[in-house]
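Final report, section 2: Outcomes. Of the targets proposed, Polyisoprenoid diphosphate/phosphate phosphohydrolase PLPP6 is the one most frequently requested by collaborating groups, and we therefore present its record in full.
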Amino acid sequence: MPSPKARNSAGRSGSVPSPGGGNGRYEFIALNRTPPHLLQRQGSDPTSARLRASESPNRRRGSGSSTSSTGGQQLPEEDCMRLNPSFIEIALSSLLAIDLWLSKRLGVCACEDSSWGSVRPLMKLIEISGHGIPWLAGAAYCLYKSDSIAGQEVMLNLLMALVLDLVLVGVVKAAVRRRRPAHNQMDMFATFSVDRYSFPSGHATRAAMCARFLLAHLVLAAPLRVLVLLWASFVGFSRVLLGRHNVTDVVFGFFMGYWQYNLVEMLWLSPLMFQSMIGQLD
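The predicted structure is given below as tokens.
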């Protein structure tokens, strides 16, 4: 029979006597081990089983990782800094930065308080001279008043070229959707829905196309030909001075207008062809 001293020391150390009892041997168990009769009771209780499963370390780690992956806000891909940008991306970003900086520096007539604010009325007059409405009205009037077949042919195709320019520029603007410069004042003459976008410059495309058209189909003296080229250049440059467009908008507009004239030459209409088309519609 074990002595009371041994029994007390065994109780303090967390040991329990073996079921045999009287052989003097003791089995030590961990203090955090659940007794067998409590295990049976917990196993029969479904609520406690679910609670133990939810409190398990693996479950907690899994829930923490899922929370961090789904609950945390994921940054958009365009907001993340790319560590290995390509050469084309670097070149385009640099070109865009230079374009915005140069356009802001050249917008000296953007408002009345600008450094060249006194020249703003003259720039707006040049702006109106390159607008589509005066050109459409003038071409239609000249077509109506023209008596010669050659004059009707030229005015008819100029009218078709102006309509084609409006359609192509509107499509490109709606596709690109580049906003106008921040220093622009929306006080333009007769604007439409797509005119809130800036790329490309419709004035620049129209000026380049009309300049090529007039130089190719009108017999003009040398001073007048120089004036036509100067007018087209001033129309494009005024777009930047007024803050309406960025530099790249105007440059691309000149190239687009130059190309549009080639398209007009491919689609050239004669008066007889136009009359036959009207007759087929009737």
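Strands lie at 15-17, 26-28.
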